[in-house]
Input
Amino acid sequence: MKQLYVNGNWIAGSGSTTTRSPSDRSEVVGEYTSAGAAEAELAIAAAHGAAARWALSGVQQRADALDAIGTEIIARKAELGTLLAREEGKTLPEAIGEAARAGAIFKFFAQEALRIPGQRLASVRPDIEVDITREPVGVVGIIAPWNFPIAIPAWKIAPALAYGNCVVFKPADLVPGCGWALAEIISRAGLPAGVFNLAMGPGRVVGEAMLNDARVNAISFTGSSATGERVLAACARRRAKVQLEMGGKNPLVVLADADMDVAVNAAVQGSYFSTGQRCTASSRLIVDEQVYPAFVEAMARRLGELKVGHALEAGIDIGPVVDNAQLEQDLRYIEMGKAEGARLVCGGERVERATEGYFLTPALFADCDPSMRHTREEIFGPVASVIPAKGYEHALALANDTEFGLTAGICTSSLKHATHFKRHAKAGMVMVNLPTAGVDYHVPFGGTKGSSYGAREQGSNAVEFFTTVKTSYTGS
Output
């Protein structure tokens, strides 16, 4: 049974979890110990005890450790990707790509550790110098989701360590294996005891312990909007720093002048790859009525060509839904869409394969009204809704008519409309002639409105969350 990693040691927990493949329910992926309140306390205490020393560590030490982690992840990307595909259900090529990205993230922040920014300015008073420096926050609690179980922990853990923070990492309950594999690599990177700690376990135990402990100076959370609200409230009560990435109901606008092949490719990739289980998925396809029939027809044709099946099988486009609870949620929204009067063009059916898994054909709804619940609420599955628009201005208004604001896309050959959309779309990230899902690791990630809260993740902007600013004055 795989154990917790606390204060430089592998230790047993108070409970256990057995994970099974969503592609084959008869396959046991692994058995993992889970932390109880006592083990969560040990992890927090270990991080707190190591924080002062690690904050003053040399940047070369941090850079070397992060680079070593990234190098090993990349060297083992096929192995780690296979584990990811088995545990979460992402197709093997996508899973290997995610593992490679995690390695690249660690190597990127290895270099960022060597260029932590600062300033020296002249004071408005004579003979005084002003230094503006950045210091680590302290202990960072990291609560990661199940849908990107290697990449998202990487883009939180790597900057936390690069900027001199200590970490308590809680992976999602559905994917402890990916979190454990990442922690095992980190455990051999030469970090001092207590700097990095793995506390697998349920959110109601481990997550609550981190939220309510004054020794945890900051929380970085990615997950559902409802849980994010609770995280925000708990951090606000004790004035802990908080960073939230939550839901999305992302629009992809297709104008009449769009290249139809480009638009369909962007819609299919953005809406359905990774089984639609991405916060950046384009679940609202807003299409100019002039090309609406042709777009719906082309989408149905393309979706009919996609292969749904076991995540490790060659040639599969869409793997299983992650678990039965998520599958049932997807099916409820599909039935809801039909009951609301939307037209189910294709898909939305649970299908059987050679192994018992949570397989669902990609669902496309047409003739949708923007007030329908399935067009407004995040489904987090392979379901997309097509909404007709009367020209660009109407399409833009529909795109912005949501409580979320993570990413937005537009397919058009018009530079005028593309430029206007980039400025006026109410989203943290905008894509032109590209899928809404798919981002680079060296630039900021985050949204507006109900999608995100706090400083941006990834890229050099990560310094904003993982450090505090100090202003020092020196007189002659």
